[in-house]
Amino acid sequence: MANAKVPVTPLKMGHVALDMDVYPMNNKKTKKDGVSRTYKGYDGYAPIAVYLGNEGWCLANELREEKQYCQSEFQYTLERVIPYAKRLLTHFSTLYLR
């Protein structure tokens, strides 16, 4: 993304959004390792995804077991993604985690 010089549009306040979310992934009727009951009521995983800017550039999408608490290890994901996100921004931009 850095070589392609993709646009990263800030919010109206001037900060660049860094969105992070855990979502259920349906894997019912499979026999995959790590599949467990989701809060949606089916068997699956709970990936954690991180998106940058109004464009929603995907910086990370990590597969995690559903039984893992949603905030478990999110700090590790942030520690890896924030430096990469900052390299894509101008030095005047501030990240806004939401």
Provide keyphrases for this structure.
single chain; 98 residues; alpha+beta; 29% strand
Short description:
By secondary structure, the protein is of the alpha+beta class. It has one helix at residues 74-88, and strands spanning 16-22, 25-26, 36-37, 43-45, 48-52, 57-62, 95-97.
Tell me the count of domains. Answer: 1
Q: Provide the β-strand percentage band.
A: 25-35%
Shape: elongated
> Mean pLDDT, rounded to whole units?
84
Low-confidence stretches: none
Q: What is the number of helices?
A: 1
Encode the helix/strand succession as letters: EEEEEEHE
Main sheet characteristics:
4 strands, mixed
Describe the structure in your own words.
There is one protein chain. This protein is of the alpha+beta class. It has one domain. 15% of the residues lie in helices and 29% in strands. The chain contains one helix and seven strands, in the order ββββββαβ. The protein has one helix at 74-88; strands at 16-22, 25-26, 36-37, 43-45, 48-52, 57-62, 95-97. The protein has a four-stranded mixed sheet with strand order 6-5-1-7, with helices on one face. The longest helix is centred in the last third of the chain and has 15 residues, at 74-88. The mean pLDDT is 84.
